[in-house]
Amino acid sequence: MGEDPVIHKRVAGSSLPRVTKSRVAKTGVLILFLTVLGLVAVQTAAAHGAPSDPIGQGLACYEEVKNEGETNEMCEFAREQSGQAIYNWQGIRDGDAGGDHQENIDDGELCSAGSERYAPYDEPGDWPSTTIEPGTQTFTLDLTAPHEAEYFRFYMTKDGWNPDTALAWDDLEQIHETGPMSPTETTEISGVDVPDRDNKEHVIYMVWQRSDSPEAFYSCSYVDIAGADDGNDDTPDQPDTPTDTPDQPDTPTDTPDQPDTPTDTPDQPDTPDQPDVPAWDSGATYTSGDQVTYNGKTWEANWWTQGDEPGSSEWGPWEQVSGDDTPDQPDTPTDTPDQPDTPDQPDVPKWNSSTAYTSGDQVSYDGETWEANWWTQGDEPGSSQWGPWERVE
């Protein structure tokens, strides 16, 4: 065989080799091979997808960062730790999963699939969340490279899961799994049965196992269950509910015998010389400023009271405003009405189960001083950590 025909003549003095048809063909094959190899490499390294509803951590953070608005503090934490966790949000994967998800991914590393690049997503915190309703729902996936799927599998955290802890496999229960399918860039998974939960904060965990490769993809979506509470059933600072409201003793239902009604004391509720001051009634309720007569004397209530006999206690709710002892001294400073509530008052009255107390009232019980946080009657001081009484000494 002779030498291939020369396509371009060699330039005199040049050391470049002659270009022949054979060389062109070989060069073309090499270029094609390198191009295909590059495409394979890009495809292998490319990101592949995550849920958009309920939105996954990575996609949610990417959207916030992209919009250059106020960024969720956990997303900002993720960006500071690993920018790739934000900008390559679709690539949380295990290339050798082959269905062995629990064997390959350790507890506490589920949201990152054990990848150091995505480790910030394993950190518990207030990640962006989606509110979802219990019942049958449709989930939406945003897949930048929609590989053939052996299945999409979804888990949800169990009732009572603590959102302040990193996610573990035992925290999850499976709620849905598809069969083999050919997903598209926007894929909807219908018929997902979202269970009802007592507490509000939960995580939906997605596993996407490819059928054409051992590779699998993962994502954590933080969700709030509509209608569930915030998980603060044991919170002590809830005294302001309607039944425990401390400042409601003078409502019509609590003061059926108000002495300062127009028929009893028209326009003169606080006048010491009022001729028609009613007699004290042990079954009636009285509030600050109400006056009664008892044992030939007139008494004025310093705070809400019922059943406390006027004059029975130096530190009781009643102050004498007229009578044998103080005929013209309704406002005598020696009997200042706001002294029983002084924290360091040495002679705090003993707690009485039949006496009603309001916010700020103090009593002594079992050698200790207690102060009421709201209206109470019959609640023994110290009997409950979340009760109306707070120990002040």
Automatic annotation (TrEMBL):
It comes from the Archaea. It holds the Pfam family CBM_5_12. InterPro entries: CBM5/12 (IPR003610), CBM_sf_5/12 (IPR036573), Cellulose/chitin-bd_N (IPR004302), GlcNAc_Chitin_IntDeg (IPR051024), Ig_E-set (IPR014756). The keyword Chaperone does not apply. Residues 284-296, 351-362 have a biased composition (Polar residues). GO terms for molecular function: carbohydrate binding; hydrolase activity, hydrolyzing O-glycosyl compounds. One of its GO terms (biological process) is carbohydrate metabolic process. Residues 238-268, 329-339 have a biased composition (Low complexity). SUPFAM superfamilies: Carbohydrate binding domain, E set domains. Residues 277-321, 348-392 form the Chitin-binding type-3 domain. Residues 225-393 are annotated as: Disordered. Keywords: Hydrolase, Signal. GO terms for cellular component: extracellular region. This is Chitin-binding type-3 domain-containing protein. It comes from Halomicrobium mukohataei.
